[in-house]
Amino acid sequence: MNQYLTDQQQQILDYITHEIDNTGLAPTLHQIVYVLEIRSTNLVMNQLNVLEQKGWIMFDPFQSRGIRLTENIPSYRLTICGSVEEGRIAFDRAV
After folding, report:
1. Residue ranges of the LexA repressor DNA-binding domain (predicted)?
2. How many angstroms separate the CA atoms of 58 and 81, rounded?
3. Domain ranges, residue 49
4. How far apart are CA 28 and CA 33, in angstroms?
5. Under DSSP, is residue 87 helix (H, G, I), strand (E, B) or coil?
6. What is the pTM of this model?
7. pLDDT tens-digit profile of 5-15?
């Protein structure tokens, strides 16, 4: 898989990830165009197709909000499971 992304591809991917993390929904093409101040929806569609070819997203251009992230996106969430024993925290594991 080619992981190299252009600046614009990275901006689009970051915005998609941000929207999905914050709203639970992928942005529409028009939202991407407006927020990132890109010239046209056609340019965004081309970049989404490239992101799909590179394995970062799955993209269905015929479905509204048809962008899905793949497992290649690094997650920055950290879940820590632990318990408090005698006033000290004892961690069972970190995921």
Report:
1. 3-66
2. 32
3. 1-95
4. 9
5. coil
6. 0.70
7. 999 999 999 99
